[in-house]
Amino acid sequence: MNKSERIKAFVELGSFLSQFTSEDANRKQHNLNSTYYDDFGALLDRVSNENLWFTPLHVHESIKGICAFLQENELHKWVARYAVSDQNTQVKVAVIMAGNIPMVGFHDMLSVVISGHSFIGKLSSKDNQLLNFISKLLIEINSEFKELIHFQSDRLSGENKFDAIIATGSNNSARYFEAYFKKYEHIIRRNRNSVAVLTGNETNEELEALGRDVFLYFGLGCRNVSKIYIPVGYNLVHLLDNWKNYSFVTDHNKYANNYDYQRSLLLMNRIEHLDTGFILLNENVAISSPIGVVNYEYYSEIKDLEVHLNTNTELIQCIVGNTIPNAIPFGKAQEPELWDYADNVDTMEFLTQLKSK
């Protein structure tokens, strides 16, 4: 299978998945529908029932993000940046995937296969069905994917005979990965969070859009904003007034339980905070915050803040705002481009340099 055929297959996959980008029925004409449409719809319902963090809204939002990747012009633009093999290689790449949000490992899977390598996926127990089904769709589109895409439930070890590994996990698991897979070419990802920088000049629309960066996926993603930097004297009440439309998050029992627990901790420890009834704002220097909490910190000079952010790049996935260089616009944190790589490590550059052992 050559490079163009791989791209064509993923475009076709995107066309099928585009029917599932919202909870409303959006069935179109597609040659996969007779066999897979009903089964995929049933799987989405089942996944939401089995993992309560994966609400129907969030599953469909994840699919919407994947469909944005699978636009033909975007795929060609992305692949053109690299020396991608025109034929399948003999390189085998193992990928250990996280399970914090639905199909969070799709980009790694896409990158490995588009590179022409063989993909060996170790799915998280929290998200172990969706990508497996997507692989079946790819195989139906082009049977050669059957030799390129494999999933396994057993723990990955050297006996699996792969040439490189990409692993995503907590800081603790990353230390294990570093030691256990040190003899392989690797990318090891750790905990990261995203931050927002406000100046006080934002519109109400921008502040409401920031709420999407905070609340989508209940804040479980590394691209979710967990901390906000605000200028001295900033009116936080004005910010919170623009987040009222997100109060529905407490309708979700798991989120509500986390929110109640964090609220109790703040009250018992007599820590001053702001409480909207669905989110807690806590003045805290930490970048990472628990579910149900957003940390905030005041700054005096934007230049000093830029220095601070630059010294903490290893903790930050992305920056949202309109003043910091290379910041992401409000509301767009969970809408990365194909070339917006996790931990700022160019996955495709890594993959295209690999050679079979």
Automatic annotation (TrEMBL):
Listed under GO biological process in this entry are: bioluminescence
- Which Gene Ontology MF annotations are present? acyl-CoA dehydrogenase activity
Would the keyword NADP turn up in this protein's UniProt record?
yes
Q: Which domain of life is it from?
A: Bacteria
Pfam families linked to this entry: LuxC (PF05893)
Q: Which UniProt keywords apply?
A: NADP
- Report what the protein is called: Acyl-CoA reductase
